[in-house]
Design a protein that fits this description.
two-stranded antiparallel ribbon, alpha/beta, disordered N terminus
Length: 609
Amino acid sequence: MATDMQRLVGTSEDDEEMGMDVKDEDDEDDEYDENGGEQGNASGMVEIGGGNGIGTATGDHRFGQNQQFQEQVGTPGGGTRRSRPLEEKERTKLRERRRRAITARILAGLRRHGNYNLRVRADINDVIAALAREAGWVVLPDGTTFPSRPQSQIADLPPRLAERDLAGTPYVPVYVMLPLGVINIKCELVDPDGLLKQLRVLKSVHVDGVMVDCWWGIVEAHAPQEYNWNGYKRLFQMVRELKLKLQVMMSFHECGGNFGDDVCIPLPHWVAEIGRSNPDIFFTDREGRHNPECLSWGIDKERVLRGRTAVEVYFDFMRSFRVEFDEYFEDGLISMIEVGLGPCGELRYPSSPVKHGWRYPGIGEFQCYDQYMLKSLRKAAEARGHAIWARGPDNAGTYNSQPHETGFFCDGGDYDGFYGRFFLSWYSQVLVDHGNRVLSLAKLAFEGSCIAAKLSGIYWWYKTASHAAELTAGYYNPCNRDGYAAIMTMLKKNGVSLNIPCVELHSGNQHEGFPETFADPEGLVWQVLNAGWDVDLPVTSQNAFPCLNRVSYNKLLDNAKPMNDPDGRHFSSFTYLRLSPPLMERQNFIEFERFVKRMHGEAVLDLQV
């Protein structure tokens, strides 16, 4: 029997790792016999339930009395209750072990071949959560699950739209973002064989390269300035052998809990340890809730990270990367470094955190209530001569408020008063100053390399006067002010490219449940795009949501290569978000290949004129 079971279950480490937190059926059988059968079990369950799952002395005593009673009374026939036959118990054990073996192999396969970041002692809830995340849902740690994006994109648009002939137009390189979990928390490359096959498929349609997140929480996870680059070394070597290029994102934020996140990668453990004793190193809202998604910009110059400031920590990380992968820079394999500047790597405040209850189309909340940001606000108010202004707005609503429901953001609201203009100027200037500090150091670390910074596409409430959702995110862009000009000037000063998302969205596609959000993604993209081009910034871009159909691709192309632009301006590159099973499906990949050809300025045969 033992030999048969070893042959069935195997002796791999997966069987040990995959031990499910499920009670053995044979153990249940033993309890069944000991406790006097079904009646004894029922009595025990009542006591356990009443004690919140923990047996009490009273419960144990009653259980013993009930067992003794069963032994004395026995069955109606006068005898004691018969135990289940030994052969039946053995069959039950065998079924349970087979089930566990199958489960172990399923989980092992998902880990190795599906890029699923499952914990060692995974259970069925982990599997369901991983599948839901891959299907585009957000699953929070407490199990709360909801769609990963506002269902605003790609409504029932006409299937046949007139297309431009882009043959002979400028060549725009196309990159594909790799899955978030391609490098696991131990800094190991996940499923290298499966990834190699996918990269070869991308290479076959002349994709220029791939983009990958380089996670601070993985590389410097355990101790300050102890860096582990092993998984990235193996990945970069694989990319080099295929003669693809690399865009690398310096990701100084947490992954997990935001739209599109299908893995969980926290900030480094040593940073979290500091945060437990000093939670003000994280952004904080008006209610005092701290958000460990990224570090507060208030500590950019505060030595609270084991003797270093936040910008010093970022610089040391970037310098280590530059030294470790020097040959890839020298060979031109790394074509661009994108520097993370906030949540999701974007230069913005974490004003709409899902973990704190935000849902589309809420306006979000200001994030300036940690002690370091309040100190900066107090200093600015005193310099202005109005110390009473050293506070955040008290009538700006909550995460899911709408502009007209608040005294601050409504038409004619306080956002446009004397105090409101002071506060918003300070709030947005902190954003610009943070970007300037980090990017100036990135320019030193990656001298001679192309560097990019990503803005966020906050397009809901764009058609209102206050642009409330942009204001809480740090973009001071009401209808009577250009909130992006100062950011572009800062990027130009540091010689940095601009990365803008949402270029595939249509303004006519409103969320079916929120038709009055006054959203305008096209208007926002056009404003930001021209603000960058007005100061001669190179512009790169990526899609915000999964993009699989021709309508979305045509919108991307319209923005990448504007029609009749007198200066012939176009994107310097485009990154497709992201490599996934749906993209690799036959029909979807055919559309993607066609899109790549048009971005490269090649002719296609089935042009819809």
